[in-house]
């Protein structure tokens, strides 16, 4: 008899687990043998069964095994010896077993090391990770139940059917003209943004927009002014780019321009609904911020992540629309108003920056998917987006009203509420001395998800606060969640009258 495998033919079959639905049988046989060779279970120079023998062991057609062997021969994992059989190639290492102790260690670039440090927690705990909490007040969620998905599917299918071969090739880096025209028209009408389609850069979500800003405008060591507290995504993007962050304290009216540094390359601001505090930047501060940018030569990055939602009076116009010099880059996204998986956002950049940002987008990923762009363009241009926004505003307004009433009833004056004038989240600031971590744990024990504000500060805040998003919850869930939160915090408030917000 031969060597190795022929002395004990049964284990070879055990090395090739076959399962229904796991792909073509020949592919499963090929992958099983390939892995056995790479792991050292089959050693170099060792003879493997004939195609007939292995087919009998596995109870499958010999033709299937022949196809698998042909693939192994073509890739050099095995060699055939005329009149003798098939053997594991001698050129392979004797033992390819892999262990963490022998994995190659790589030297990361400064950017790679910074990204790994900054994004580890976000990847593990981001909004896409499901939580086993019944009443989850996570912020940044989109209310997707009311979106007209059936209409969207029909529109997407129609665009796929009528797309020409040219339209299915690489598209323009800055985005399809139809979508850029639709975005520009909507922003001029609803947010008073002063722009034309040429200034719109379509990106894969607002996070890519932040990354492009960092790549195009920030050198390692550049000073960047940033709200404190702030959105973690922008902090991580700028730190990964090597920026030297200059935190500017936020108060009840948002960022205070009087506290801005003497010089800075760029300032990041969320004027319509500061994240996370919810403060709204008043007109006087907006004008002062623009004067500071003019005086220092800085660029202003305006993130209007949920500027479409305002409940007290008319929505405030954009900061970009007040800019006489073209120093503001305006950032927006459809993740909050359509659905997050769409991954379409946009930048509106000053004219002198259009070419640089378009080139950076092209180098990054060439372009954003074109069929989705055209479908979104049709959705906006056909008036369906505006109707959907009105529906979302009504639903969010009802949730907000329910939330504030429940807070008043079950938490009373034990907490202060900020950020309730716009957006889809609020912040609760408990009165008295509390541990933020303890508050979160107590709430979780009652199946209520709340989220501390400490992680959004470059310096830990005092007193602690809790971010509560409400876009994804139903009204009865909001009521029950806040009732449980009151119990979790050992707050007993009785006979408070319901109050309309």
Outline of the structure:
With 501 residues, the protein is an alpha/beta fold. The protein has helices at 10-14, 25-39, 51-58, 62-75, 110-125, 149-162, 177-190, 205-217, 232-240, 283-296, 354-365, 370-381, 384-410, 436-445, 475-488; strands spanning 47-48, 78-81, 85-88, 135-136, 200-203, 223-228, 244-251, 254-255, 266-269, 299-303, 328-333, 345-348, 415-418, 425-430, 448-449, 451-452, 466-469. Residues 1-10 and 492-501 have low confidence and may be disordered.
For the structure shown, list the relevant keywords.
501 residues; alpha/beta; Arc Repressor Mutant, subunit A; Aspartate Aminotransferase, domain 2; Aspartate Aminotransferase, domain 1; 3 domains; 8-stranded mixed beta sheet; 4-stranded antiparallel beta sheet; 17 strands; 39% helix; globular
Would you kindly provide a written description of the structure presented here, covering whatever features stand out?
- This protein is α/β, with parallel strands linked by helices.
- The chain has three domains: 4-88, Winged helix-like DNA-binding domain superfamily/Winged helix DNA-binding domain (Arc Repressor Mutant, subunit A, Orthogonal Bundle); 187-386, Aspartate Aminotransferase, domain 2, CATH 3.40.640; 392-488, Aspartate Aminotransferase, domain 1 (Alpha-Beta Complex).
- It has helices spanning 10-14, 25-39, 51-58, 62-75, 110-125, 149-162, 177-190, 205-217, 232-240, 283-296, 354-365, 370-381, 384-410, 436-445, 475-488, and strands at 47-48, 78-81, 85-88, 135-136, 200-203, 223-228, 244-251, 254-255, 266-269, 299-303, 328-333, 345-348, 415-418, 425-430, 448-449, 451-452, 466-469.
- The strands form four sheets. It has an eight-stranded mixed beta sheet, with helices on both faces.
- Strand 9 (266-269), helix 10 and strand 10 (299-303) form a beta-alpha-beta unit.
- Helix 5 (110-125) runs antiparallel to helix 9 (232-240) and helix 6 (149-162) packs across helix 12 (370-381).
- The longest helix is centred in the C-terminal third of the chain and has 27 residues, at 384-410.
- Mean pLDDT is 88; it is low at 1-10 and 492-501.
């Amino acid at each position: 008899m031969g060597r190795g495998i022929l002395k004990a033919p049964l284990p070879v079959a055990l090395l090739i687990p076959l399962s229904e639905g796991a792909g073509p049988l020949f592919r499963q046989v090929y992958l099983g043998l390939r892995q056995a060779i790479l792991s050292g279970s089959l050693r170099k120079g060792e003879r493997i069964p004939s195609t007939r023998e292995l087919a009998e062991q596995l109870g499958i057609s010999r033709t299937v095994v022949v196809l698998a062997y042909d693939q192994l021969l073509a890739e050099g994992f095995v060699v055939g010896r005329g009149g003798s059989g098939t053997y594991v190639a001698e050129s392979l290492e004797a033992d390819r077993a892999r262990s963490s102790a022998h994995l190659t260690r790589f030297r990361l670039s400064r950017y790679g090391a910074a990204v790994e440090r900054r994004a580890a927690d976000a990847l593990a705990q981001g909004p896409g990770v499901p939580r086993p909490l019944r009443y989850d007040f996570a912020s940044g969620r989109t209310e997707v139940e009311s979106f007209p998905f059936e209409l969207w599917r029909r529109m997407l299918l129609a665009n796929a059917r009528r797309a020409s071969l040219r339209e299915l090739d690489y598209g323009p880096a800055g985005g399809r003209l139809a979508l850029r025209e639709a975005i520009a028209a909507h922003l001029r009408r609803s947010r008073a943004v002063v722009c034309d389609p040429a200034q719109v850069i379509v990106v894969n979500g607002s996070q890519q927009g932040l990354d492009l800003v960092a790549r195009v405008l920030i050198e390692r060591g550049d000073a960047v002014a940033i709200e404190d507290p702030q959105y973690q995504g922008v902090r991580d993007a700028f730190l990964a780019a090597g920026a030297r962050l200059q935190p500017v304290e936020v108060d009840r009216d948002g960022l205070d321009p009087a506290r801005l540094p003497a010089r800075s390359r760029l300032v990041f601001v969320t004027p319509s609904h500061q994240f996370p505090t919810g403060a709204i930047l008043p007109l006087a501060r907006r004008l002062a911020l623009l004067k500071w940018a003019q005086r220092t030569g800085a660029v202003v990055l305006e993130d209007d992540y949920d500027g479409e939602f305002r409940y007290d009076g008319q929505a405030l116009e954009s900061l970009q629309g007040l800019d006489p010099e073209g120093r503001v880059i305006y950032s927006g996204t459809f993740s909050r108003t359509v659905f997050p998986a769409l991954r379409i956002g946009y930048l509106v950049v000053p004219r002198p920056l259009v070419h640089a940002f378009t080139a950076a987008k092209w180098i990054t990923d060439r372009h954003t998917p074109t069929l989705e762009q055209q479908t979104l363009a049709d959705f906006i241009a056909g008036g369906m987006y505006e109707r959907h926004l009105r529906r979302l505003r009504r639903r969010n307004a009802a949730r907000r009203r329910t939330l504030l009433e429940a807070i008043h009833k079950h938490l009373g004056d034990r907490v202060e509420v900020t950020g309730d004038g716009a957006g889809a989240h609020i912040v609760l600031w408990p009165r008295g001395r509390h541990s933020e971590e303890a508050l979160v744990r107590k709430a979780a024990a009652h199946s209520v998800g709340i989220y501390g504000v400490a992680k959004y500060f470059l310096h830990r805040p005092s007193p602690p606060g809790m971010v509560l998003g409400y876009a994804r919850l139903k009204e009865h869930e909001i009521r029950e969640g806040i009732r449980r939160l009151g119990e979790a915090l050992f707050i007993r408030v009785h006979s408070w009258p319901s109050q309309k917000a």
